[in-house]
UniProtKB/TrEMBL annotation:
Protein keywords: Heme, Iron, Metal-binding, Transport
Pfam families referenced in this protein's UniProt entry, alphabetically: Bac_globin
Superkingdom: Bacteria
Protein name: Globin
Keyword Iron: yes
InterPro entries recorded: Globin-like_sf, Globin/Proto, Hemoglobin_trunc
Length: 148
C-alpha cells in the first residue's frame, strides 16, 4: 500500500494533487463559476464581518467593480494566463495595478482572513484551500506598504 501524502499543512491525502497546471487549478476551484462564487463569498464576508471593517474601508461602497476585478485576477492566476487580467488592468499582479490598494500589516491580515473565510464557505478540497492561501499570502505581502 502506498502511504498517504502529507503536505506542509499536515493535511493527509491519499491522492497526489498537482496544482502546477492551470487546468488542474481551475478544476480544483470549481471552474469559472467556482471562482466567481469565491469572489462573491469574499465580498459577502467583507460586508458582514465587523472584524473586517479595516479592509472593507479600503474599497468603494459599491463592490461591483472590485468583485469583477477580484474574479478576473483569481481566474488569471488559476488559469496561468496573463492576457485576461492585463487586458483590463495593466500588469498581472494586484500590487502593480495603477488602481492598486496598498495595505498595512493589519489590513493585509484582514484581507487574508476574509479570503480564508470565503474559501471556508466553498466546497473545495482542504489541500487546494491551503494552496490558494499560501499563494495569496505571497501576493498580499507584495501589496503591503513599503513604509512598514
Amino acid at each position: 500500500m502506498i502511504p498517504p501524502e502529507r503536505d506542509i499543512s499536515d493535511i493527509v491525502s491519499g491522492d497526489i494533487l498537482d496544482f502546477s497546471s492551470g487546468n488542474n487549478r481551475l478544476n480544483a476551484a470549481g471552474g469559472d463559476a467556482g471562482i466567481r462564487k469565491l469572489a462573491d463569498a469574499f465580498c459577502q464576508c467583507m460586508e458582514t464581518q465587523p472584524e473586517l471593517a479595516v479592509i472593507r474601508a479600503k474599497y468603494p461602497d459599491d463592490l461591483t467593480d472590485f468583485r469583477e476585478t477580484l474574479a478576473t485576477f483569481l481566474l488569471t492566476w488559476i488559469r496561468g494566463e496573463v492576457p485576461l487580467y492585463t487586458k483590463s488592468n495593466g500588469r498581472r499582479y494586484l500590487n502593480t495595478n495603477q488602481r492598486r490598494v496598498r495595505l498595512n500589516s493589519a489590513e493585509k491580515a484582514a484581507w487574508l482572513r476574509c479570503m480564508q473565510q470565503a474559501l471556508d464557505t466553498q466546497p473545495l478540497s482542504e489541500v487546494f484551500k491551503r494552496y490558494v492561501m499560501v499563494q495569496l499570502t505571497l501576493s498580499a505581502e507584495m501589496t503591503r506598504k513599503a513604509s512598514e
